[in-house]
Amino acid sequence: MYNTVLIPMDLEHEDMFPKAVALAQQLIGDEKGEIHAVYVDQNLVHHGNFSLSEDAVKQALGDMKQQVKKLFKKYVPEHLRGKCRVKSGVVYDTVLEEADKMKPEVIIVAAGRPGFSSYLLGSNAEKIVRHANCSVFVVRDEKKW
């Protein structure tokens, strides 16, 4: 079984997080283990909030961090809680960097049903699967993203 699991979180698809946590619990089994999570905020990378004041950006970041921590505490059992981090950057790069630092035995990433656009653009899940230095499990959503 696995002892250290990393789950990238996506607030646009937060219904996938409990599914990923349930899989993590199965993979950890009766062993002692930790479930870690990382949420990657892409807004500053893509200049998504260029028209907001600095205070508004700080407030939005604070609200987002609270939402991420609340979701983590709601679904990850206390005895399995590792670290829950909020980072800024490109999703797949940041998740892979976090995994290189943390050295999880497995990453559990959510992915939507592939549509035509995913053949052209690729997805964060695909890039994580291809470049991670550990096993990666993909939890599928029934909806196309």
From TrEMBL:
It comes from the Bacteria. Residues 1-140 form the UspA domain. InterPro entries: Rossmann-like_a/b/a_fold, Universal_stress_UspA, UspA. It holds the Pfam family Usp. Transmembrane segments: none annotated. PANTHER family: STRESS RESPONSE PROTEIN NHAX, UNIVERSAL STRESS PROTEIN UP12. Belongs to the universal stress protein A family. This is UspA domain-containing protein. It comes from Oceanospirillum linum.
